[in-house]
Write a structure and sequence with these properties.
This protein has helices spanning 2-13, 37-51, 57-73; strands at 17-22, 25-30. It is 59% helix and 16% strand. The longest helix has 17 residues, at 57-73.
Length: 74
């Protein structure tokens, strides 16, 4: 589950992800220049709301959805 969350988070926060292959490994490396700052700010705010202020999951999801819609309009 954590792997799936990291995979989705990486693809949502970064517009470009390059692939590196070598020594039998395949690594997906995000391009720092393609970072979406709005998504990063909303993610940090959600983490603070959950772990620092102990808000419930539904409140955080609702607030994140509302802030995400407002951010997309502006």
């Amino acid at each position: 589950m954590l792997n799936l969350a990291v995979w989705f988070g990486r693809h949502v926060m970064f517009a470009e992800i390059s692939e590196w292959r070598g020594a039998g490994l395949r690594l997906l490396i995000p391009d720092i220049a393609s970072l979406d700052m709005t998504t990063l700010i909303l993610s940090v705010a959600a983490l603070l709301a959950i772990f620092r202020f102990r808000l419930g999951m539904l409140k955080v999801l609702g607030g994140g959805a509302l802030l995400g819609m407002l951010a997309s309009f502006f």
